[in-house]
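Let us work through a complete example step by step.
Step 1: write down the sequence.
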Amino acid sequence: MQLDNDQLHNLLIFLEQSDIQELKLEGDDFRLEVRRNLPSPVALAPAPAPLLAPAVAPAAPAPGPASTTAPSSPPPAPSAFRADLVDITAPMVGTFYRSPSPTDAAFVEIGSRISAGQPVCILEAMKLMNELEAEVSGEVVEILVENGTPVEFGQVLLRLKPT
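Step 2: predict the structure and record it as tokens.
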């Protein structure tokens, strides 16, 4: 499948006029993902028919293990900013994991002393497991995200007291 600039432009105009929240489109040599959050339902004029040959349909969710437990309490609220701590933030959108596999121990715990370059968690994005390494040495004083929780770009995951 090929997608030229005009087709991409028409697709983006179509999506802007629709209420589609997420679209994933893959070809031989490209992958396009568009996500957006509408603030509230808005009445829109009927969208013109897309000028693309293939029909655009929302992607079906990938099969995966279903969660059998609901969170018993909301995640802890992040504490106030402290200048003496270093934040480790998510460099991408993904799912936060504290250990390399469900049966392994967590990379770090509160009170753990870590070195620069040491893995502190995994962020899974698009079925790829990305180890996130500490940029400074220090002691872990806060873990702000629950295991298996989706995170946003720039979200604070951990706080360190540098040494």
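Step 3: interpret the result. The chain has two domains: 1-60, 86-162.
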